[in-house]
Amino acid sequence: MDVLKATISIALLSQAVAAAQGINFGPSIAEITPEWNNVFPVDNFNREVTTPFWEPTLMNDTTTTEISQQLNAVSNASFIVYDKEMYRLLNVSDHNASKTVEVIFKFPDKPSYAQRQIHDGTVYVPEMNAVFFTDLYSPKPGYGMRAIPFVWRINLSNNSSPNFEKVYPDPPFTIANGAYYHNGAVYWVQEGNYTTPGGVVRMDPVTLKTQVVKNNFYTHRFNSPNDIVVSNSGAAFFTDGYYGHDNFNDSLNPQLVNGVYRWDMNTGNIKMVAGAADGGFFNPNGLSFNADQSKLFVTNRGNNSADANGARTIFSYDVTATGIARREVFAYTDAGFPDGIKTDRDGRVYGAVTGGVDVFNKDGTLIGRIKVNEDDVAVNMAWVGNWLYIVGRDYVYRVQLATTEK
Ligand SMILES: *[C@@H]1O[C@H](CO)[C@@H](O)[C@H](O)[C@H]1NC(C)=O
Ligand SMILES: *[C@@H]1O[C@H](CO)[C@@H](O)[C@H](O)[C@H]1NC(C)=O
Ligand SMILES: *[C@@H]1O[C@H](CO)[C@@H](O)[C@H](O)[C@H]1NC(C)=O
Ligand SMILES: *[C@@H]1O[C@H](CO)[C@@H](O)[C@H](O)[C@H]1NC(C)=O
Ligand SMILES: *[C@@H]1O[C@H](CO)[C@@H](O)[C@H](O)[C@H]1NC(C)=O
Ligand SMILES: *[C@@H]1O[C@H](CO)[C@@H](O)[C@H](O)[C@H]1NC(C)=O
Ligand SMILES: *[C@@H]1O[C@H](CO)[C@@H](O)[C@H](O)[C@H]1NC(C)=O
Ligand SMILES: *[C@@H]1O[C@H](CO)[C@@H](O)[C@H](O)[C@H]1NC(C)=O
Ligand SMILES: *[C@@H]1O[C@H](CO)[C@@H](O)[C@H](O)[C@H]1NC(C)=O
């Protein structure tokens, strides 16, 4: 969010009117009061699932100017607050505080064959003080997703001036997506393509040498591995959905249901621990442990992000000695779907969605949102100390919070 823009724009709106209507506007924070949240001030609202709530188009009749002006002002805010806990997280006392989301990078334009660009796999490597993530170019109809030879590396040695650089894993990934740091290595999942099977690839972050470490389920190809976490004891959990086949035209016909696998890196044992077969998942995506690894959070998209019927859920599980158990609907997001998710030491879960990052407290209640630039979509995040780095489709952002990952 552009600091200046947010400040000027929100100032345009009469604060007295806004407060009377149930939103407290500061220079960059919009606090939605429970009254406004409980009963929307006009009746002619209806919102499509891909639209963030601050779009005035959620109303049929935008001649209700006062409300659409308010929504516009909310869209210009850097943070949306629903619960006071969000102020503690932002380390500010109230909506009058001035705090912003810093834009640290704008991506170069996508190649012409691409419909859009996506960036994922956001992973911090402490020994190098660097964050790695991928470029994915979702193809236009009639094309297939192309394997990209580089990943991005943010060098944070100079914290006030992060350096973005393309680096070249060797051999290159075949459509890499999520990634996790474990014991000095980065474990990426790659989607694969028609010729190269998807799976798990280990990368040495210093030499960038890569090695495929898992590429089949008893000689079945995985469909489209999307994200991965690895426990301290070496149990990897990764999601597998139909993204490659249904969206990106880059893989063979799926032969396996959608689900979450547990792959024990010590023994090589692999099994599915949650899946479409138990009604849980259709296109599972991001995963994250809580701080002590006793819980696993897994997101689900559904058949597509406009699917009102199947999308937008963060499930929580208890992690057991052999798998995961006791699935609960932890949170249901209201726009887009939670792609990457991250957690903090206080039990909060952060979901990257259309328009920003939704922050849920440990009970699964939405306490606020960290907004990204208008029309951008947050894809994934990485913690670096108490800074949350947010990688979107078009920009990279960071914000300092009063917590850390562990
Ligand atoms: C929000 O920002 C947009 C773009 O900068 C501006 O046109 C609009 O007037 C702002 N709206 C309000 C209510 O501040
Ligand atoms: C929006 O307007 C159309 C007619 O213009 C009407 O059929 C529809 O019910 C309205 N929707 C809402 C949510 O008011
Ligand atoms: C915030 O600022 C407004 C004026 O802009 C003021 O009326 C209000 O009392 C302030 N709120 C707090 C909690 O300080
Ligand atoms: C899939 O991609 C290939 C090229 O990679 C193209 O020839 C084919 O038409 C595409 N199919 C669809 C359904 O888009
Ligand atoms: C498929 O993956 C292989 C290995 O990464 C790569 O050489 C090839 O170019 C990829 N094909 C396409 C169409 O991107
Ligand atoms: C990161 O940048 C510093 C200079 O700020 C440099 O000394 C260091 O070698 C860089 N790290 C990598 C991995 O390139
Ligand atoms: C860090 O970056 C800032 C801004 O580009 C620059 O002024 C400063 O000299 C850099 N510090 C070091 C140690 O390179
Ligand atoms: C997703 O699509 C499949 C195949 O078309 C269908 O069987 C399934 O019910 C759909 N799931 C949802 C949640 O809509
Ligand atoms: C919160 O902000 C105050 C300054 O207002 C600062 O002294 C303190 O270190 C911050 N705390 C955290 C956890 O960031």
Q: Can you describe this structure?
A:
- With 406 residues, the protein is mostly beta strands.
- The protein has two domains: 2-77, no CATH class; 102-400, Neuraminidase.
- The protein has helices at 3-12, 15-20, 34-38, 65-75, 85-90, 243-247; strands spanning 23-25, 29-32, 79-81, 102-106, 114-125, 130-139, 151-155, 163-167, 176-182, 185-190, 199-203, 210-214, 225-230, 235-240, 259-264, 270-275, 284-289, 295-300, 313-319, 324-332, 341-343, 349-353, 356-360, 366-371, 378-384, 387-392, 395-400.
- The strands form six sheets. The chain has a seven-stranded mixed beta sheet.
- The longest helix is centred in the first third of the chain and has 11 residues, at 65-75.
- The two termini are 27 Å apart.
- The chain binds 2-acetamido-2-deoxy-beta-D-glucopyranose (9 copies).
Short description:
With 406 residues, this protein is mostly beta strands. It has helices at 3-12, 15-20, 34-38, 65-75, 85-90, 243-247, and strands at 23-25, 29-32, 79-81, 102-106, 114-125, 130-139, 151-155, 163-167, 176-182, 185-190, 199-203, 210-214, 225-230, 235-240, 259-264, 270-275, 284-289, 295-300, 313-319, 324-332, 341-343, 349-353, 356-360, 366-371, 378-384, 387-392, 395-400.
Question: What structural keywords apply?
Answer:
single chain; mainly beta; Neuraminidase; 4-stranded antiparallel sheet; 11% helix; 39% strand; disordered N terminus; binds 2-acetamido-2-deoxy-beta-D-glucopyranose
